[in-house]
């Protein structure tokens, strides 16, 4: 990306989008909220004391000696303390008398269901822990997990946590190569998988990919296989072990050892822009303290009555923190769904909400925009009145998607919390609080209590209200990554070298006139048009605010006149049809009116799909390759690689205006 031209007072990132809608918290929710406005001040007055109090939500075997040991950029939290993550998530709730409480209402894609109580979960986790020990896994060994969304996936993670073997979950949709390189980098000894899983109505194979990935990797001593679909699998005697043989005959008791607060809990790979994925390392005490607190505070969780649903894959950090560790550490009841939102019909999510009486739902903007595309009459067929808080995560939520979500899913009553965080931050960092914040569509608003995030310009100066720049974190936080697995230099270089002493997540942001924070997408995606830095997010949001557009992705393509020019790809709402020439002009004018002439796309292409990762992030890098007529970069983390062919085919026929 080109350097920003710097004149004094020049904004690092343009601030084009204006939004005046406001949604105050519902009075009853505010009156009974877990967190009140004073939490911000209390936490700011004594940040470490605040996090100590949150760590007190957990059960410690031995209390910590120091809250924080900070040798920038390396942090250790709650040093000297010991605890067991699995005991915190499961055993202690059973011991407190909640054994019969439902931990998960699990719904398989074909419609099969399982209800798992905390007592059952405890037995399953103990059995799996005993089986892993029998397979020779010892404390500190890494275990790869390549699974569909089934209860055994949670059990496998907790069994690893219980015996102190860091887990490394790889998305079930990732390729053999992606799995293999992650096994290599983490040096995993055992892989836990299933024969297959259900996606879009079909059983997809998982074991076959594991076979291909481990055949030249003798370091993997065992492959533990859950039978989910019953499909045929190849079998390597001595290496492969069925879950139902190895786990289900084990004792349901296992004495858990308390691990050091800084003992590694898991590694999760993020692809980033370069070839080699980064193994983000999380440890136990600080991570659990922050996921537990944020799950309780940001969603206003009432563990006795709420039914919580994160509609995301466990292979994404969102699944780790808000399907597994957050909800379980709080003793909550969760829904877990195996499949896709349109199988067997487009109302599947809302049917699930109605069936289980979901009160809090958390999902990605990409899903919300897909529901917009399908039309509001789909959710209207279901009783969604149980919902009281809605959450969004993964990308900036466009104001239009936010208001659609609030109105059509939340019945115009529920607050929407737009939660900004990353694999690296481990837990939510910037978000409204549903009982405190007057919500603005599209804004993540404020750092949560105890977090010191800021927006700075490229000289690391805090930008004034109304200014744009980069989001940074000033002080260490409990759930922060402890490094990149095996590569401390890359950790320093990636996150701590851009601004001296500040954590740099790589996202653009702006602070509005009230001081509230808006996330503007990855800095790598920012476009430089005639000397102005324009965020893809703002242009996309302007496009999505047009009644005919369901989804938009914008990228900057090299342009002889303006340096870069804005190229937009749009998906139309179901009822609109093909669009045509008139529509392109209409959309360009609409962007011009919303954001100003500088933001008018040079080209707009109507496409049926966009390239996305399994967590729903649009891969703008690939769109830039298409827009600049280059061959495509790495597509291994795409949900559906045929999407790019469809888009590339469209390109030659696409007309640019003026
Ligand atoms: C949790 C998760 C992290 C990146 C992050 C940012 C984007 C996530 C967002 C958001 C705007 C939000 N992101 N939440 N952008 N508003 N509410 O998504 O982790 O997969 O590591 O991605 O996602 O760009 O830097 P991860």
Describe the structure.
- The protein has 658 residues and is of the alpha/beta class.
- It folds into 2 domains: 27-511, Rossmann fold, CATH 3.40.50; 526-653, GMP Synthetase, Chain A, domain 3 (2-Layer Sandwich).
- It has 19 helices and 30 strands.
- An 8-stranded mixed beta sheet has the order 12-11-8-6-7-14-15-23, with helices on both faces. It has a 7-stranded mixed beta sheet with strand order 5-4-17-16-18-19-20, sandwiched between helices.
- Strand 1 (66-71) and strand 2 (74-79) form a beta hairpin.
- Mean pLDDT is 93; it is low at 1-9 and 653-658.
- Ligand 6R9 binds at residues 270, 316-318, 393-396, 418-423, 444, 505-507, 519, 522, 615.
- Our Rg estimate from Cα atoms comes to 24 Å
Q: Any idea how many domains?
A: 2
Strand content: 15-25%
Overall outline: globular
| Second CATH tier, the architecture of the largest domain | 3-Layer(aba) Sandwich
Low-confidence stretches: 1-9, 653-658
Count up the helices.
19
Number of strands: 30
Would you state the CATH class of the largest domain?
A: Alpha Beta
Structural class: alpha/beta
Would you tell me the overall average pLDDT? 93
CATH T-level fold name of the largest domain: Rossmann fold
Q: What strand line-up does the widest sheet have?
A: 12-11-8-6-7-14-15-23
